[in-house]
Amino acid sequence: MLKQVKDGKLLRKEIITSSKESANQITNVDSIQQREYFEELSANLVNLVAIAGTPAPLYQQFCPLYKNNKGGMWVRIVKAVKNPYDGSQMLNCAFVQKEVN
Q: What single DSSP character describes residue 69?
């Protein structure tokens, strides 16, 4: 995952490169590792939107119980919570952290 620079923004090229790497790897690993790459993709998307903006709001959602209570974040285009990490067991376990636009 990319590290944030002082002003909290990452260079677009670095974000895109990291996103491509995660997207390419996501199909070649088991479901546990897929979730890790998905979380990286979501974080990169939030960083890219912070730099470039988006015409419609996105919703950063968070499940505090994922990864043994360490939590996990993802982005959705709708505000309704649907947790992608633990299937039907945790489908509604999450909240909207912030609106990203």
A: H
Determine phi and psi for 38, rounding to 5 degrees.
-60, -40
64-79 core/surface letters (b: 16 or more CB in 10 A; e: else): ebbeeeeebbbbbeee
Band (pLDDT 50/70/90 cuts) for residue 4 is: low
What's the length of the chain? 101
Q: Which amino acid is at 76?
A: R
Judged against a pLDDT cut of 50, whether residue 6 lies above it is answered with no
Give residue limits of the domains in the chain: 12-100
* pLDDT, tens only, 38-59: 999 999 988 888 888 899 999 9
